[in-house]
Specification:
alpha/beta; 9 strands; 24% strand
Length: 259
């Protein structure tokens, strides 16, 4: 209501924020049952005006010279409804599973249903699988391959209060591609290469005190080198791939005690 109307001093409502051209096109619906949209009219504004005047926005009521813009608005409507459905059936349950483990954020990779994930338990890929969630759904994987759909999905997630939202396409390791023995001084090692597929991902957070969790006292941070995928064959395999050398919770508690 506030988007298009404004009350004057006599208690009457005046239609505002609608250009004469948009309003002229809308009036056509009450004359002929069709909204004839010239090529140069903004289709998004036509869509908003239809929502306000409770006019269906579909092929039966809108006749547009700019077919691409019309189809794009229809896709935006459809993608929003579709993503809302994906949220309830697949994404929210996956987020809840992470939340019940004490996590405050979630990284979801959307695989196809026929993707086979076969990681070597001794030499898994360094992808942080302890914080990685996988959803296998062909429809979601196809839906998120379009950048416009990812933008709509991001808007929906923002409206629901989530933060640090990222959507995109990334490489995901499915199975071992090559295994070879390398001559790493002073001893030999095993190097494992994985086969990667490009799949959509969603990253989001529901953390409330993120500014405190991210506090780091750099005076107490020790240098740590990342582990290499080649490991000594005669030593116990250390697969600690956490590159963060700081226990953030301890640092926050230490800072709170100092304050």
């Amino acid at each position: 209501m506030e988007r298009f109307t404004k009350e004057n001093g006599d208690g009457e409502f005046k239609i505002d924020s609608v250009s004469p051209d948009i309003f002229r096109a809308i009036l056509g619906y009450y004359v002929s049952g069709e909204i004839k949209v010239p090529y140069d009219l903004n289709m998004y504004e036509i869509k908003e005006a239809c929502d306000f005047f409770l006019i269906p926005f579909n092929t039966a009521t809108v006749v547009s010279e700019n077919l691409s813009a019309f189809m794009n608005e229809l896709s935006n409507d459809g993608s929003r409804r579709k993503f809302e459905s994906f949220l309830q059936t697949d994404i929210v349950p996956t987020m809840a599973e992470a939340a019940m483990k004490g996590e405050r954020e979630c990284h979801i990779v959307c695989l196809k249903e026929d993707d086979i994930v076969d990681w070597d338990p001794e030499y898994p890929p360094a992808v942080g699988e302890d914080r990685l969630s996988v959803v296998k759904n062909n429809e979601i994987s196809r839906f998120l391959k379009y950048i416009e759909n990812r933008e709509v999905a991001k808007t929906v997630l923002q409206e629901k209060g989530l933060k640090k939202i990222r959507l995109g396409i990334e490489g995901f390791p499915t199975h071992k591609d090559k295994v070879k023995v390398t001559q790493v001084k002073p001893r030999g090692g095993i190097q494992v290469t994985y086969f990667y597929v490009q799949r959509p991902f969603i990253v989001m957070s529901w953390e409330k005190e993120e500014h405190r969790s991210r506090h780091v006292d750099f005076a107490n941070v020790s240098t740590c080198q990342s582990s290499h995928r080649s490991v000594n064959s005669d030593e116990t395999v250390n697969l600690n791939r956490n590159l963060n050398a700081v226990d953030e919770i301890e640092l926050v508690e230490q800072r709170d005690q100092e304050i």
